[in-house]
Amino acid sequence: MGTSEKGRVVMGGSAGATRVGVAAIDNHPIVLKGIGAALAESAPGLELVAVAGSVRELLAGPGAQAAVVLLDLGMPREGSVEDDIHELVAHGMVVLIFTSEERPAPVRRAIAAGASGLLLKIDPVEAIADAIRGALDGEQVCSGALAHALLTDDELMVKLSPRQIEILRSISEGLPYKAVARTMHISESTVREHLNRAVATYRQRGLDPGNSHGLVTMARGEGHLPD
Asked: Which of 58, 170, 173, 205 could cysteine-pair with 52, CB 3.0–4.6 Å?
């Protein structure tokens, strides 16, 4: 068999049949071996051709010819998930988030960065295979009801502004308001105003953070802040 176009390998057998190359960037190889075996059994048109620990490693090997990349959110990385997505999309690859993450904010940031859909590792391989095919057809896909809710249900998280998130991130790192204000080149009263607005947004949803530390806890629980 030979490669006829990027990510599609002609199968030895019926004329014109093709296999779509699927690669993965993940640090759980056992999970991926299981996915590879399941795809081979239930989705013979899809083949897991490479597993890598980073975008750089993937693009330096056979995975560079894959049509689709399954990208884990939670693994250690040098840059950001958004940077990874931008680089893969720039190489003409369809990027699908393949993760155990069940907080809405990180997966929505990934979609906004250019990922074509969300696949949860808990979902059946048949649903994952269907989603991969849909993404290849240009659709934005989800592998199940929970994945769809994480991307679309506005009740799952409070929308915070980038400035509010930046302030909460600094507070989570132990900086007092005065130091946050100095770092961000704003006044301390402006810091407090952003926090008050964030509290008001949560209270509109019937949630009371209580104070800035409660805000940090809620924002982290939704994925606005890293663990």
From this structure: 58
CA atoms within 13 A on the CB side of 61: 14
Contacts of residue 52, Cβ cutoff 8 Å, sequence gap at least 6: 23, 24, 25, 58, 61, 63
Please tell me whether residue 11 adopts helix, strand or coil conformation: coil
Please report, to the nearest 10 degrees, the dihedral formed by the alpha carbons of residues 215, 104, 84, 126 taken in order. 160
Taken in order of first residue, the domains within the chain and their CATH numbers are 3-153 (3.40.50.2300), 158-222 (1.10.10.10)
Mean pLDDT of 7-19: 49
The count of C-alpha atoms lying within 13 angstroms of the C-alpha of 159, restricted to the half-sphere facing its C-beta, is: 6
SS3 225: coil
Burial of 218 (0-12, 13-18, 19+ CB in 10 A): buried
Contact 65, 49 (CB under 8 A): yes
Q: Which of the four pLDDT bands, split at 50, 70 and 90, describes residue 10?
A: very low
Q: What is the pLDDT of residues 152-165, one digit of tens each?
A: 988 888 889 999 99
Measured between alpha carbons, how far is 176 from 195 in angstroms, rounded to an integer?
13
Task: Please compute Rg for the chain using Cα positions.
Answer: 21
Asked if the model's pLDDT at residue 207 lies above 70, the reply is: yes
Listed in sequence order, the residues at least 6 apart from 223 whose beta carbon sits closer than 8 Å to its beta carbon are: 101, 103, 104, 105, 106, 107, 157
Which has the closest alpha carbon to 83: 59, 45, 55? 55
